[in-house]
Amino acid sequence: ALGGVVLVSGVLGRGDGPPHMLLGDALTLLGTIGWVLYTRGAARLPTLSPLEYTGLTAIAALPWQLLFAVAMTAGGWVNAPTWQDLTPVAPHLLYIAAVPTVAAVVAFNFGVRQLGASRGTLFLNGVPVSALLMSVALGQHPAAQEWIGAALVIAALTLSTRAPAPAARPSPQEGVKTRAAAGADGRCPAT
Q: What is the rounded CA–CA span in Å between residue 119 and residue 96?
């Protein structure tokens, strides 16, 4: 799947492109690493529902996002939006807040809960494929290598989801119940 992602992203064909494209690729890679860590973190907190995990991580991220926004504004890299900037795009911002920021993340966390973190993380490879399809919908014409990459990603995801799932580990609460049922010496009581 990773090879397909490389082809879909066009990284191999960008050697003669503008330098800012490489920065975008690096930032995307950094974001992907962060998303993988986020997904794996959900598996470490099995007592939280997907909604609770989403909410708590959003609250924990808020101070860092504010710090980043202040630093970027103070450094002159971005300008703080004015009310005149925000008013015409308010419906778009509400959509972004509701659908991709809340609904999609909660749905992803429910999916990870059902599939497990290992399989859930595999679906991050589908992001470049969906971006490729959106670019086609917007009238762009992807290169052949990008279509080949999309096919590789889809094939890898199909193969990996057909493989038998690894045995689920018991949650900490289930482990305590099992040990308690087994008795102090670890043996099952006679029936």
A: 26
